[in-house]
Amino acid sequence: DIRPGFMLGKKNVDLAVASNRDRNSLSLFSIDRASGAISEVGEIPTPLAEIYGVCLFKPASGELYAFANGKDGRFLQYRLSAPNGKAQGELVRSFKVETQPEGCVADDQRQRLFLGEEDVGVWEVDARADQPATLSSVIKVGDVVHADVEGLALYQSDAHDYLVISSQGNDSYVVVDAEPPYTLRGAFRVGLNASAGIDGTSETDGIEVTSMNLGGPWSKGMLVVQDGRKRMPEQAQNFKFVPWAEVTKTLKLP
């Protein structure tokens, strides 16, 4: 996950955080806005036996937090800082779901965290470190969302906010309103584009979405989908870029 505006010593950088499954830690990287250069700036060890998903949260106060989860259901919340130019983390909260989680995404504006429990569904919880971690159901695994629940992403605009869910069990993507009562807007698949020689997507783990105008077909935003099984040609997994305008058209979103 990535957030802009992190103070690395006296330097303002964009910070990327990834879960390091070989070391059960969090790896932190700075991104130079001018050149795009990426530099490793720290590692945070965790007590998790099998680290899995990770996401970032930046409330209006400007502090930056990382959520990391493990296959045992634990979530650890770290406050990130780098006063001397090396990123570090302080554990400030922990909570647990009953079974294996993975995907998560934080809503910085409304200070809440969406998290996926793979065989159960999607939950919402207060993202603030000083608040109780009371889980509220968003959508359950069933007729629309098929286990495993994988990546989660937030589409936020002046008009509407949507939560996008990777429903790995049937290779689809589910869209719900990002506000209670979390109205279901529909589901779609990313199919074959034969004329462009681009295969569809399947076995998706991570997803990301933005409402920013990226130009051309992405003027209404872009959905990035990890394709776990590339078939044209047969190669390692890759990523597909989907115009959000196509999602809006397919689901008839308001």
Automatic annotation (TrEMBL):
What's one Pfam family here? Phytase
Please name the PROSITE patterns in this protein's record.
BP_PHYTASE (PS51662)
**Limits of the BPP domain:** 1-251
SUPFAM superfamilies in alphabetical order: Thermostable phytase (3-phytase)
Q: State one molecular function term (GO).
A: inositol hexakisphosphate 3-phosphatase activity
- Name listed for the protein in its UniProt record: Phytase domain-containing protein
Species, as recorded: Pseudomonas syringae pv. actinidiae ICMP 18807
Q: Which classification does the entry list for the species?
A: Bacteria, Pseudomonadati, Pseudomonadota, Gammaproteobacteria, Pseudomonadales
